[in-house]
Amino acid sequence: MHTYNPISALLVFFSIGALLYFLFRPSKGWYWILKNQLTSNEKTIIEDVLKQLYHFENSNNKVDMKTLVHMLSFSNKKIVDAINIMTVNNLIYFESDILKLTEKGREYALRIVRVHRLWERYLAEKTGFHKIEWHDRAESMEHRLNHDEVEELSRHLGHPKFDPHGDPIPTKTGKMAQVKGVELPLLQVGAMGRITHIEDEPEVIYKQILAENIHIGSLIKVVENNVTRIVFLSEGEEFKLAPIVAANLTVAPLEKEILVEDNVTRLSSLTENETAKIIGISRESRGESRRRLLDLGFVKGAQVSIDLVNPLGEPNAYLIKGTSIALRNDQAAKILIKKD
User: Fold this and answer.
1) Are 165 and 216 in contact (CB under 8 A)?
2) In this structure, what are the phi and psi dihedrals at residue 207, rounded to the nearest 5 degrees?
3) Which among 11, 58, 91, 172 is placed 20 to 30 Å from 230, CA to CA?
4) Rounded CA gap, 213 and 240, in Å?
């Protein structure tokens, strides 16, 4: 007679769970990689190659065939076939073993970049998708929209100049605004500035920045800068980053020092029995989410306090204009206050 062993059952359960994770992990699971290999068409591969070459050239880096094959999730044969087609069509050329864009290829690449960044802006302003999903979803959509659909999307969004990460969006003629600022590690101790760009690649570093809840548009002051860490103050909180992570933040130094009040902080830091006035809403809150907060009464000058603390951590209820409003911590972190 067999007896039930709970440890064995748990091991089987976690083994199956791990297998399913590796098979169906969004965009990077074995199933999706295999599906991508089988369904990828010539146009998709060509556009991905052009975009990669554009990003390399824009960062003053060089790329050869070996590097390109390593970066793209297509078979070697498909990439080589695409390179041959692109060469014949005067989109790229070889300088020794280095791949480079022709003017025609660069114009094509800019059109793909335009679609990608417009779609990220759309996802940020018009949908509820988490920011970690924006890039992959835009990667998929950039190959689908035609010229008229892209122009309609741009018009619908008000012809924005920047995507939600602070990257400039090319116009339909290929012109782009300049990103103002320098990498955070280049700022001296005591320097003040505003975050103008957050690089979303590589993904592992971007996830660290998201975990720290650092917001684009935030005012910062550097208090420590050395080879091991960068420490800065922003919105009532202290942030500590490794230099390699901090380098993904672009900060526009302020031309003149401004007074930063010590008690200006995020609503998420408010505790019971404290009251505060709303200073504003972070640029990190966009589109429908921003309008919803304003409609709920979180406007400049409004008095706010905690009405109910959730014993499980979140959401908490805030009393604003006589109404109790429940907010998650990530929502409250985008509302700036001055404590009384």
Assistant:
1) yes
2) -65, -35
3) 58
4) 12
**Sign, Cα dihedral of 322, 326, 331, 336:** positive
Residue type, 45: I
Burial (CB < 10 A; 0-12, 13-18, 19+), residue 99, is: buried
How far, in Å, CA of 179 to CA of 139, rounded? Answer: 22
Separation between Cα atoms, residue 154 and residue 175, nearest integer Å: 14
Alpha helices (runs of H) in the chain, residue ranges in sequence order: 6-24, 30-39, 42-58, 65-71, 76-88, 103-126, 131-141, 147-157, 203-211, 243-246, 287-295, 329-332
Could you give the residue ranges of the DSSP H alpha helices within 72-225?
76-88, 103-126, 131-141, 147-157, 203-211
pLDDT digits (tens, 9 = 90+) for 256-308: 655 455 578 899 989 888 999 999 998 888 888 888 899 999 999 999 999 98
Which secondary-structure segment (H or E) carries 304? strand 303-308
pLDDT-wise least confident of 16-25, 133-142, 184-193: 16-25
Whether the link from the prior residue into 185 is cis, omega within 30° of 0, is no
Q: What is the mean pLDDT of the chain?
A: 87
> Rg for the chain (alpha carbons), in Å?
24
Structure tokens at 160: 């924005």
Cα 291 from Cα 288, distance rounded (Å): 5
Encode pLDDT of 75-99 as tens digits.
Answer: 888 889 999 999 999 999 999 889 9
Query: Cβ distance 49 to 82 under 8 Å?
Result: yes
Reported residue count of the chain is 340
Cα gap 165→117, rounded to integer Å: 9
Q: How far is CA 198 from CA 12, 81, 194, in A?
A: 41, 35, 11
Q: What is the dihedral of CA 113, 217, 249, 111, to 10 degrees?
A: 10
